[in-house]
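Throughout our pipeline, every protein is held as a single compact record rather than as scattered files. Such a record has a labelled line for the sequence and another for the backbone structure tokens. This encoding replaces a full spatial description with a residue-level series of whole-number codes. For reference, a complete record is included directly beneath this paragraph.
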Amino acid sequence: MTSPGPVTRDLLETFDDVRSRTLARLDGLTDAEYLWEPVASCMTLRADENGVFRADPRPAGDVRPAPFTTIAWRIWHIGADCLRGYGRFFDDETPSGDQHLWPGTAAEGVQMLVTDWSRFRTRVELLGDDRLLQPMGPRAGSYGHESYLLLALHALDEAAHHGAEIGVLRDLHLHGFTAEQGTSNEVSTTT
């Protein structure tokens, strides 16, 4: 393989930084944290009657405010919904199976995220600068006129902001946040 051009190299370096930061925040994640629902009616992973876990689907339409999601759901969203889901825009992959299937344990969920991240990163690297800057074409449907660079930057944005949200949720869990604590509208000030 030839070395990547400057656009690909810089994109992958940033992608790797986000990956490292996110995985560092997931180090030691417990199953209790993974499925923790800090507020009522969280979107999460749920086991069916056979013990198979699936991510809750997004509600139809533009629901405001958006439902709150668990760490497990956010990991699924980065891995399966975004990084794996965007595989449909590459020439070598045809989506198959239930995209909402996801492991019900923290260790397996993080490992699946690592796998999806690696696969997406490899696809971007193999494009190289020339192809990265070209439109995705008919396979991408209404996004066909958009470049692979835009797709990769969108994936990077999704991974970075949901990774940061995961970090905040872990901090809240670590510090013993409860929904009752979050309902106060009082403002305290100190002088």
Summary: Strands lie at 45-47, 53-55. The domain at 6-57+66-181 is CATH 1.20.120 (Four Helix Bundle (Hemerythrin (Met), subunit A)).
